[in-house]
Amino acid sequence: AVIRREEYQPPEWLVPEIALDFALDLDSTKVTATLVVRQNPEGSGGQTLRLNGDGLAARTVTVDGQAANDWRMDGQDLLIELTGQNHTVEIETVINPAGNSQLMGLYASNGMLCTQCEAEGFRRITFFPDRPDVLSTYSVRMAGDKARFPVLLSNGNCTAQGENADGTHWAEWHDPWPKPCYLFALVAGELIANHDSFTTAGGRKVDLNIWVRPGDEDRTQHAMDSLIASMKWDEEAFGREYDLDLFNVVAVSDFNMGAMENKGLNVFNTRYVLADPQTATDADYDAVEGVIGHEYFHNWSGNRITCRDWFQLSLKEGFTVLRDQMFSADMGSAAVKRIEDVRVLRSAQFPEDSGPLAHPIRPDSYQEISNFYTSTVYNKGAEVIRMMRSMAGVEAFRKGTDLYFARHDGEAATCEDFVVAIEDGAGLDLRQFRQWYSQAGTPQVKVRLDHEGDVATLHLSQVVPATPGQPVKQPMPIPLRLALFDRDTGQHRGEELIVLDAEQASFAFSGFTRIPVLSINRGFTAPVAITSDVPTADLVFLAANDDDPFARYEAMQSLIVQHLVAAVGGGILCDAERQAGRDAIGRALAAVIDDSALDDLMRGELMILPSEAYLSEQLKVADPGAIHAEREGLKAWLGRELKDRLTALHDRVSALPYGRGADARGARKLKTQALVYLAAGAPEEAASRAAAQYAAADNMTDRQGALMVLCGLDTPARDDALADFRQRYDGNALVIDKWFSLQAGSLHPKVLEHVRALADSPDFTLTNPNRVRALYMSCAVNPKAFHALNQEGENGEGYRTIADLILALDPINAQTAARFVAPLGRWRRIEPKRSALMRAELERVAKAPKLSRDTLEQVTKSLG
Ligand code: ARG
Ligand code: ZN
């Protein structure tokens, strides 16, 4: 069934209060729910109370204390016919957490019990109007075996606890803040806390706990530091204070997504909590900080103000991603953070926008809402709000968000409410801007600069491509920050923000005796794709001189993208042209390595080659083999050409001791960067350096970087390092995930064979999403593996591997299985032979009996 945004109806019944009583047990938990229900004055007066269920059977149903006989099932839902306006409904269900492999609702993970209710998991716990516009005050009581479940947690504050004579104990929790059921959480198990506290600006002392399994407590300090920093930052940046006396975070090893913002009780995937230098890379540290911030910031953007319906998901996710991006930018290097965020957008969201699953940040319809927790809703959603901030200016934007929080506190709001608040508070006219909420597709902006007399004229035009269900598009307002560099001085005269709001527009700039060098979309002000025929020399100039770090990175990327696209797209006709392109890139890269004014973290960004996914995006139809060969060819040429520089760089940065500061982190980033180029151009040199780096490593960043490089090489050092790594970290699931991921993501010619062997290894299991992603997502996003580039011809072995995985995983964990459809869904943009093989695998999946709604929706849309 298709759910449509336009068909929203307010609920007929509200549930101002709910009491939940859990008799906890791993495979049979009894749930008694007592709902105070009240007819909604905004409803249409219907007397049927619809309580959603998913796989539940009611043991007893009472209304106002009397056994009810006026109830029936409608599919999975329980319907009760009521008269009058106020009732108390009590329902008893029994569920099996240990049998819950979908990891939605109440489930068991490593002997502990935990919940995930967003989006529609609460209906797997008890019958309830499972929609975000029904807000209730929760009282929770739980009882269970004290030895098995020594710690009992839920939302809000613990109001009472005690022990029984039979070895069980109990706890009662009360959350004073009304919330939708997707924010309910319960955790019971053997856990140990890193405890600290934070005093808010208003003087409220908040107890903070990061709960983990015993043995993991030494890896929680970074999460705690990040939490305290988040709480402080939100007070300063957005004026948001925490509103309870307690804030709990629990780390769980079996988790479908990253983490969950349940009120006062955030539940996290262990990978976004646990970190120490021995087991976590610098990137892992950043991810912990970002996700801790993200979930904490949801307390206001998500919890105090929630969503009216799931079509509004970007209201909380887009805004909260923007907030976590701003937080991380303030904690570290803002320039590097911006570049990383754009890289994620381009490699994950742009392909979504140009593929069969394209949808606006506020979708119009869905079959399974879990499929809409996408890079579009999250990352493009953040970009859309960031554009408002760029247009309003920092201070006016803050007035807008202040107004939004004040106006809608306690409500279930819409994206439209947010836009209106920004209009009113920041003084913007966003009438046309609303197109960003309703139109899918990445706008393509064509740029041309011409020059006559002393006037430089910028000609811009935009096309928003057709996407499924949206054949015709309106022009969007596209804010572009730009600067024009004087060729004589090498300087610009200040930045300007222009807004392209029509299909075409021209902007004139006077006072230029020569045509200036254009730097446009500085800071990536708009999530668009820009095409221009900038001369290579201008890109080289910007790559060396642009004072906007993002623009400098962009110039470097464009230089490489232009060359590689020409090389694979046929624009390069002879070897001399290829060589000229490589020479220009080689000189630019050498300048980056030599530039003593650059910090190493930024140098690392400038040295990264554009991904194959991003290169494919530039072509209507891509030949993954040609792209891979040309990109690897360039990398190998650079590795040979710059070998001395790269080895000197590797020597320099290898001399720095471990530290968490920017310099030491920059050094670690470059260590592996240098090896990556050397591995392509001078594999023997790289193998010995990587083996030495592996052996000398006193931290995971160096160790993983070295192992990654070794994994792609056909050398005995590879097997030695892999065996050492496996044994050294035995029992540490998150590090063993890396061991899987590095092998499945490698450039090794036998990578697909390795994937198959790993799938059969005793460490592999389909029941743990982290392990599944470590092996199969790494494979699906690795062109070498996915497109089986080592094979003679095209035999589709990579596609078959992913399709087999989808079929095997779907009955176990549909949400995670459905995430693997998108890579196959790219078939329309791939050369004909591979395209047919990809499509055939999708058809094979589509034909399977009993596919989940999650996978069926994605497969059907992908076949189109
Ligand atoms: N709201 C969470 C977050 O972004 C993610 C929700 C997980 N959703 C799911 N369907 N498992 O922070
Ligand atoms: Zn979120």
From TrEMBL:
Its EC number is 3.4.11.2. Residues 223-436 form the Peptidase M1 membrane alanine aminopeptidase domain. Belongs to the peptidase M1 family. Keywords: Aminopeptidase, Hydrolase, Metal-binding, Metalloprotease, Protease, Zinc. InterPro entries: Aminopeptidase_N-like_N, Aminopeptidase_N-like_N_sf, PepN_Ig-like_sf, Peptidase_M1, Peptidase_M1_dom, Peptidase_M1_pepN, Peptidase_M1_pepN_C, Peptidase_M1_pepN_C_sf. NCBIfam families: pepN_proteo. This is Aminopeptidase N. Signal peptide: none annotated. It catalyses: Release of an N-terminal amino acid, Xaa-|-Yaa- from a peptide, amide or arylamide. Xaa is preferably Ala, but may be most amino acids including Pro (slow action). When a terminal hydrophobic residue is followed by a prolyl residue, the two may be released as an intact Xaa-Pro dipeptide. The keyword Zinc applies. Residues 441-532 form the Peptidase M1 alanyl aminopeptidase Ig-like fold domain. It comes from Novosphingobium anseongense. Residues 72-183 form the Aminopeptidase N-like N-terminal domain. Coiled coil: none annotated. Gene3D superfamilies: 2.60.40.1840, 3.30.2010.30, Neutral Protease Domain 2 (1.10.390.10), Peptidase M1, alanyl aminopeptidase, C-terminal domain (1.25.50.10), tricorn interacting facor f3 domain (2.60.40.1730). GO terms for molecular function: alanyl aminopeptidase activity. SUPFAM superfamilies: Leukotriene A4 hydrolase N-terminal domain, Metalloproteases ('zincins'), catalytic domain. Residues 537-863 form the Peptidase M1 alanyl aminopeptidase C-terminal domain. Its cofactor is Zn(2+). The gene is pepN. Pfam families: DUF3458, DUF3458_C, Peptidase_M1, Peptidase_M1_N.
